[in-house]
Amino acid sequence: MSAVPVPAPAPRTVAAVSAGLLLGVLLSALDQMIVAAALRTIAGRLGGAEVQAWAMSAYLVASVVSTPVYAKLSDVYGRRPLYIASVGVFLAGSLLCGLAWSMPALAVFRAVQGLGAGGLMALALAILADLLPPERRVRHQAWLGAAYAVASVAGPVLGGFFAGAGTVLGIDGWRWAFLVNLPVGLAALALVAGALPRPVRGRAQRIDLLGAALLVAAVVPVLLLAEFGAEWGWASPASAAAGAVAAAGTVLFVRTERAMGDDALLPPRLFRSRTFTLVNAVNFAAGIGIFGGLLLLPLHLQAVMGLSPTAAGLMLVPQTAAIIAAGRIAGPIAVHGGHRPMLVLSVAWMAGSAAGFAALGADSPLWAVGLLAAAMGLGTGVFFQVVVVALQDGVPPEDVGVASGLFTFFRQIGGTVGTVALGALAFGLGPLEDSIGTAYLVVAGVLLASALLPLAARPQTASARRG
């Protein structure tokens, strides 16, 4: 069966489902930030510091490759059972991580967590698209985007607290970095499972198992190369093997998807839509700049300006507040007024903000940092909302699930590339103060190039989108 929009739900149903989806997205976003902040302490307690990077990489790889799978399966079997499965797997992984006895075991359990996390954001977007028309949907989508902004501030603080606590309720403090997910996840599960209507039966489809396996073969080597290429050596046999496997996997995956047609994991017909293809190109390219920039600002505040982790976290509050405010305002405007100009302006605005960050030094006033952070937040909040509206406008309702999965997938890939590449740039070009400025100029350039991509798309009116 295929997931199709259900009749207009009662306001109470919408409120319960939206709250549950928000908790799920917040759960995923917070988990990454909390664990990143606590990982060094965890490795010290469990031993095996030499493999601690795998605890992050296993989660990342599993979540990225599972995202389009959840999205496509939700189009076949319905959103509700797949969302329940996603949260359930994430909670099982969290419990196992909290019970881990070694770093290798933790890495395996983090992969289980990642397999669950892959469905949380993509399915949240698809569920809201099923339940609500665009003009009502954007208000709820704004809160999903805000969850990531809140997590960027709250996550490191919570991670530091759990890492520094000896015991909490008789349990080692670091274990709460994972166990804290359980009550939040159970609440999300109860809200969504209790309120979300059961799926409506639709057209039977084949399951593209071969495509899913080949996607893993194509993507996993790329992610591993991004994470460990510098350590392995870019010209090493391991890097060459990863590149060869990725290339072969990509070729075979494309051939398989063409053969599967409408039942493909990534239906080729979606990429024949100019709007869909360009939106995802912008999403990927801007993801490089946005998530790379999110790495650079805390690094600049702590390593260059000498702020404590807590003070650096507080300096991110203006950016968080701006993301939330801009998202709430931008969505309704994009629905009624067309999204192309807003995409161009929001990404160009972020490029200008990144260029401003490049001019900062060790003695820059904190008010200037806060002002630039707020400016970047405004552009980010507008972009996060408008790009979702543009994506969902570019596909028919029956493809919203798989389209949302691809949207999340490309953003994750772009974010991974940006974080790894800009981190390497910041630490590899001499004095950190100078290299961070150079890295910010790269961010500005990538974002400016991203701003030019929507100009290739035909304008789309509100009436055309509704029709």
Question: Which keywords apply here?
Answer:
467 residues, mainly alpha, Growth Hormone, Chain: A, 3 domains, two-stranded antiparallel sheet, globular, transmembrane transporter activity, transmembrane helix, MFS_dom
Provide an overview of this structure:
This protein has 467 residues and is mainly alpha-helical. It has three domains: 1-205, Growth Hormone, Chain: A, CATH 1.20.1250.20; 209-264, no CATH class; 272-467, MFS general substrate transporter like domains (Growth Hormone, Chain: A, Up-down Bundle). It is built from 19 helices and two strands. It has helices spanning 11-46, 52-77, 79-98, 103-117, 120-131, 134-164, 176-179, 181-195, 209-232, 237-260, 268-271, 274-304, 309-315, 317-337, 340-358, 366-393, 400-428, 432-452, 462-466; strands at 167-168, 171-172. The protein has a two-stranded antiparallel sheet. Strand 1 and strand 2 form a beta hairpin. Helix 6 (134-164) packs across helix 16. The longest helix has 36 residues, at 11-46. 54% of the residues are buried.
List the helices and strands and how they pair.
Blueprint lengths: L10 H36 L5 H26 L1 H20 L4 H15 L2 H12 L2 H31 L2 E2 L2 E2 L3 H4 L1 H15 L13 H24 L4 H24 L7 H4 L2 H31 L4 H7 L1 H21 L2 H19 L7 H28 L6 H29 L3 H21 L9 H5 L1
Antiparallel strand pairs: 1-2
Helix pairs in contact: 1-5, 1-6, 1-8, 2-3, 2-4, 2-5, 2-9, 2-17, 3-4, 3-5, 3-8, 5-6, 5-17, 6-13, 6-14, 6-16, 9-10, 9-17, 12-15, 12-16, 12-17, 12-18, 14-16, 15-16, 15-18, 17-18
Subcellular location: Cell membrane
Family: Belongs to the major facilitator superfamily. TCR/Tet family.
Keywords: Cell membrane, Membrane, Transmembrane, Transmembrane helix, Transport
